[in-house]
Amino acid sequence: MSTLWRLLSLGRPQAGWIALSIVISTAATLANIGLLATSGWFITAMGLAGVAGLTINYFTPAALIRMFAIIRTGGRYADRVISHEATLRLLTTIRSRLFAGLEPLVPADTGDLGTGDLVTRLTKDTDRLELVFLRLVSPLSVAVLTVAVIIAVLALLVPALALAVAVILIAGGFVLPAILGQLARPAGETITAQTAELRRELTETFDGLSPLLMTGAAAARTQRLQQQMDALLTAEQQVARLGLTGQAGVALSADLAVVAAMVLLIPLVATGALEGASLTMVVLGLLASAEALAAVPDALTGIPAALASARRIFAILDRTPSVCDPAQPLPLPASTDLRLSDVRVHYPDQGRASLDGLTLDIPAGSRVAIVGESGAGKSTLAALLLRLRDPDSGQVTLGGLDLRSLTQDDLHSRITMVRQSPYILSGPLADSLRLGAPDATTEQVQAAVKAAGFDRVLARLPDGEKTMVGTAGQTLSGGEVRRLAIARALLTGAPVLLLDEPGEGLDPLTEQAMIDAVLDEQRQRTVILLTHRPTGLEKMDRIIVLSAGRIVDSGPLPELLARNAYVQGLFETLP
Ligand SMILES: Nc1ncnc2c1ncn2[C@@H]1O[C@H](COP(=O)(O)OP(=O)(O)OP(=O)(O)O)[C@@H](O)[C@H]1O
After folding, report:
1. Which pLDDT score is estimated for 142?
2. For ligand 1, which residues put their CB under 6 angstroms from it?
3. ipTM, interface predicted TM-score of the complex
4. CATH superfamily of 3-317
């Protein structure tokens, strides 16, 4: 199916609104033409009658003028209201489809797309699709219907004129803009690609502003951004120039239609075969027809950029999620024993498997630390436990049930993770705290906050839970953000808690205090600690040593300290 067809079928649920907008807009445009034409006829006829000393019936044309004026004004108002309604409904449909398509893809299947790129698809690209309906479908339909009515009316009056006007208006109003639309294709596609690229670069630049400034790379980055903006501007100017050329063509075609009318009708007026007032009526009507065609050039020159945006959106919708809920999910098991059986994960383009035939039991309530050098496979293991991805082979089970037989929502009510860089919403701190448990009672919040040692932080903040924090929690220190994330995880009530490098970036004392707070409080919970630091290992039932995706050793800390060089090394690096 072509991109345009597919796009149009996306708007099918709103077809009724779009059709209504087209009918009303056509009526308003025709009323405007009728108003000018009738006024022209009326004034000329009155003048001629005055000169000849005759009286004419002016009630009918006056009533017609009033009717056309009312239809024109009312029609334009109704058209705005209805086209906005249609547009907003369309946007809702398109954005909901995009969100629905995107959600199951995150995070396993969107790793190749940066945040900036995804945001562009959700905003700028979606807005351009809206323009397809607002700027292409509607104006083109109105122009076609209006020109058809003009030609039909002229055919009743003077068939030869109808033919000449048809050729002129179709050439100037549709053929020329279509050619210009083809010429605008490369620039239109550049606009879409360049907008996405620019947004991606800008997002990356803002995210990495400090290192860019500190390494002196900011100037080069600014220059690159400037070049991208210049390229975007050049492409936009090209499209605008083609659009303006099309508008000049439309105006010229209306003028040429007037010339054709003069050439063909003046002889008829001279011979008395046509009233002089009818000539004025036709000329003014044809001049007004330019309004119906005015939006066509912009529509056709803007379409390549919109189609390029549509292709970017369909590229998301066409992705098959590698992790999805089963058609018939099983109810959650009572037990929260976790087991990985012979699991293997091999990322594309990686020389070796990241997890290579790994088997591990994590009984409910146990405390297990998974240690290993960078790249050993700890985060991949966590991703499997949370079912952010599925193993290429092998099985992960919760209470004996394969995770693939449970819904992801159910699974995440049992297992939750505190990440290395927790996500903090921009807004009141309470929003971030209650993210996973919006209905938590004050007592529950207080208990979780206390257990995570976040109560002291809250007490220090002037507005407590109402304190505004930034997207990356900029107004909180690294340790405070980590405590907030732990409190949030505890608040969900999930019986399995995964801590991913909870002490990363913290001083050893803060790290120890934070891990102690969680472990001392959470007697019932399973705690899985992923780390390459020694803090907290002494409180773990078992330490699993991972290397190159395999378990190379496991046991209680004292045993490993006696025999495992990697674990010994962890403690030797202590200050
Ligand atoms: N999304 C991915 N795509 C491709 N390769 C990946 C991906 N995620 C991880 N890897 C690779 O898999 C291996 C294991 O990575 P993983 O992040 O699981 O290790 P880790 O022990 O958590 O490391 P760290 O302590 O540095 O976070 C590494 O070689 C890494 O490059």
Report:
1. 95
2. 111, 347, 350, 354, 372, 374-380, 532
3. 0.96
4. ABC transporter type 1, transmembrane domain (1.20.1560.10)
